[in-house]
């Protein structure tokens, strides 16, 4: 009953969708009850389709009523062709193409019924390419033509690119266009459609004229036999108007060939529980075909299997479902693989970004390291340059001090020369006084310069000590920071040591100069004494003072007592400063 209900629903769906929404339920329900031999229930019908908000006049609202009040009451005692024709009448006018077709309306109706049989069990109804190929092959075989697989493959590719399948009306247009029946006339196409319709819809397994022996008169009469899954009906003619009887088939029936007798050939016998039937075929081939067809039908009845075309349809459907399931499983696996691949890609992208970040950090660290190295090199170079400049300055200072020492020695020599000149000038008092004054001024200046030079030398010595200490500290810092520059620092140490030696040599020279300076100071002191001793020898002749004069061994003194005391204080101060 489930299969029957599905077959009925497909035809009803076409009829319901073709009618107006407001009246489709009522009109269709009356007609269905009539053709399906179901009692009318006008109260339930009006209650279900009452005109208010609670009356769901829609496809979804009609299905509960259809299932409860019509389909569940169907017993199978109805004419399927009449039922399909009623549904066809309701939907054909609205949906059938207005363009001229190579098939009649009756043939279009049969194609529509075949579509409902072969279509998928989902709505809106469509027939998939595999079933289209099966139907076109059956029609081509029925027309006695050759199947054009290449042509259909091209059409299938075109179809698959646009949609999943064809509707009933598109299938009618395809067959009516003659695309797959070129060279065939309308009658041949119509006969092929009728043959396929009889097989798939009316379950006609085989049909044809044969002779049947009567049970009472024992005469032979030609009848039109129609083999179905559980019955063989025979008619006066192939128009099926005058039915003469049925042969009920079941699992206990059998068929066997008979020898020729009574002038009849190609005989075979159909044995049933209550009766046997002798039949004569037109030739041996037809005899063998009928025997095989009847025996196959009986075997199916014994096995409880459906007719071959329905079983083949179920197998094709199961195959499509299996392929669809495999395709869905493959798609699922592909999605999983794609998801896994995307996850891997994301992981790889994350790792790549991490590697890029690590590389960037490493590059940044390398850049900082190089920058630090360059800075250290620049600093070391600047330190070396500064050391070089310090050394150069020290050398310049030493050279300057040497030059000053040389000048000082030169001055000492000049003083000695002046001393000689003073000794020569003792003969002339005036010249002696001038020489005395000159020597006195020169001595004072020399003493001041000596003191300044001594202070400057001591300051320079302290600066030199500080410079040496700074050089040692910087050398130690450079050694701690740049161990790789140890050799360069050692060179710098050697230079510093050389500088220290030169400094010591300069100190030694300074000591020598100092000694010479002390010697010169002593000599100067002796010169002062000599000058003081001899300054009274020569004096200018000038008028005498009214004040009392000092008397020396050589006569009256050239200075007064106050002047002499002042000069003594000045000499003592200068002597103290020089010491």
TrEMBL record:
Q: Which domain of life is it from?
A: Eukaryota
Q: Which residues form a coiled coil?
A: 316-530
Q: Does the keyword Coiled coil apply?
A: yes
Q: Which PANTHER family match?
A: SWAP-70 RECOMBINASE (PTHR14383), SWITCH-ASSOCIATED PROTEIN 70 (PTHR14383:SF6)
Quaternary structure, per UniProt, is: The SWAP complex consists of NPM1, NCL, PARP1 and SWAP70.
Cellular component, GO annotation: cytoplasm; lamellipodium; nucleus; plasma membrane
- Please state the protein's primary subcellular location: membrane
Single GO molecular function: DNA binding
Its subcellular locations are: Cell membrane; Cell projection, Lamellipodium; Cytoplasm; Nucleus
Task: Output this protein's name.
Answer: Switch-associated protein 70
Can you give the residue ranges of the PH domain? Answer: 203-299
Tell me the Pfam families matching this sequence: EF-hand_SWAP70_N, PH
Residues in the signal sequence: none
**Gene name linked to the record:** Swap70
* Gene3D superfamilies given in the database record: Pleckstrin-homology domain (PH domain)/Phosphotyrosine-binding domain (PTB)
**Keyword field contains Cell membrane:** yes
